[in-house]
Every structure is written in C-alpha cells, then in structure tokens.
C-alpha cells in the first residue's frame, strides 16, 4: 500500500473542496532540496554534538543560548528576545536556562520595568565556556560544512535560506 504519492515526474497537487487540483509547487528539485536540507542539518548537528561532547564542551543548544547572550548589548536579553534568537521552543528554552543558571553559566535578573519580565545575563563562567567551545565548533563548521562550498555557493545558500526564513509565519 502506498501511503504517500510519488512526486518523481510531476508537480505535486492537492484536491481543493471544488475538486480541482491546486499546484503546490513541489517539483522534484524542490523536494530534493528540502530532503537534502533536512538530512544535512540532522547529520551535521549530530556530528558537531559528538565532537563538542568528546572535547567536554557545551552542547550546541547551550552554545547557541550563550552565544546569543554574548552578542547582545551588556550580554543580556529579555527571555522573549532570547527565545526569538535561538532555535528552541519556549519551554525548551526555559528548561535550558534553568540548567545553565544552575551551572553558573548565566543568571536571571528581574526586569526593573516589568515585574513579570526577566533578563538572562551571561556570566564570566558562561563566556569562558563559550571561548573553550569555539575552536571545536569552528573546526567542525569548517571541516564538515564550509569546505564543501565556495564563497558564491555559500552566498546563494544564505540568500535562499534567509528568503525562506523571512517568508515563514511567526507565532
């Protein structure tokens, strides 16, 4: 039994209420690009996570949060700003911030203008952990990603992914 239609030689369509076919634009090259993106992302994240763990460095999700704080003015962000800057759900971010705070890599501070709001602030230990992880992370990016693209391909990929991100609906 075939669960999914094959998209190998035609544009994917879906039936509308009127029964007509609506073109989805899922051509074979676009579906292949989607699959390649998902597979490359999953593979590279796994490789980088293993390399960071082998070097006893931060996991990528922790690195991402601490880097977002390091790049912010005064090395602090409101929690909702931090959620927008990283690739984590809000609940996942809250749990990770709890863990990073317990490890002394960041601290929470109350927002003076909003009793419900809080800042996440990078600590000196958090900055040191980022600095320890960077050489491993940079080497992994260079070896497993960057060396497979020339600068023109990297620019094209960046432009395409930024276009996709900008067009995506936000919560």
Could you provide a short overview of the structure?
This protein is α+β, with helices and mostly antiparallel strands and 171 residues long. The protein has helices spanning 28-54, 60-70, 79-85, 90-102, 124-144, 151-167, and strands spanning 13-15, 21-23, 76-78, 106-111, 114-122. It has a three-stranded antiparallel sheet with strand order 3-5-4. A two-stranded antiparallel sheet has the order 1-2.
Please work out how many helical segments DSSP would assign.
6
**What is the C-level CATH assignment of the domain at 28-146?**
Mainly Alpha
Helicity range = 55-70%
Report the sheet with the most strands, covering strand number, pairing sense and barrel closure.
3 strands, antiparallel
Tell me how many strands there are.
Answer: 5
Characterize the quaternary organization of these chains: single chain
**Which strand order does the major sheet show?**
3-5-4
Spans of at least 5 consecutive residues with low confidence = none
CATH architecture of the domain at 28-146: Orthogonal Bundle
**Average pLDDT for all residues:** 88
Strand portion, in percent?
A: 5-15%
- CATH homologous superfamily caption of the domain at 28-146: Winged helix-like DNA-binding domain superfamily/Winged helix DNA-binding domain
Gyration radius, in Å: 21 Å
Order of helices and strands: EEHHEHHEEHH
Q: What general outline do the C-alpha atoms trace?
A: globular
Here the CATH topology of the domain at 28-146 equals: Arc Repressor Mutant, subunit A
Which class do the helix and strand fractions yield?
A: alpha+beta
The span between the termini is 37 Å
């Amino acid at each position: 039994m075939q669960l999914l239609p094959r998209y190998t030689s035609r544009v994917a369509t879906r039936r509308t209420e009127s029964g007509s076919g609506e073109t989805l634009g899922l051509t074979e090259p676009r579906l292949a690009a989607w699959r390649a993106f998902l597979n490359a992302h999953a593979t590279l994240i796994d490789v980088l996570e293993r390399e960071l763990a082998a070097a006893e460095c931060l996991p990528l999700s922790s690195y991402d949060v601490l880097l977002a704080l390091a790049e912010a003015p005064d090395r602090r962000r409101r929690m909702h700003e931090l959620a927008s800057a990283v690739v984590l759900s809000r609940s996942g971010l809250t749990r990770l911030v709890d863990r990073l705070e317990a490890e002394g890599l960041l601290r929470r501070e109350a927002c003076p203008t909003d009793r419900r709001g809080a800042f996440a602030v990078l600590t000196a230990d958090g900055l040191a952990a980022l600095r320890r992880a960077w050489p491993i992370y940079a080497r992994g990016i260079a070896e497993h990603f960057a060396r497979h693209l020339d600068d023109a391909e990297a620019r094209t990929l960046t432009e395409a992914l930024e276009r996709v991100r900008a067009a995506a609906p936000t919560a």
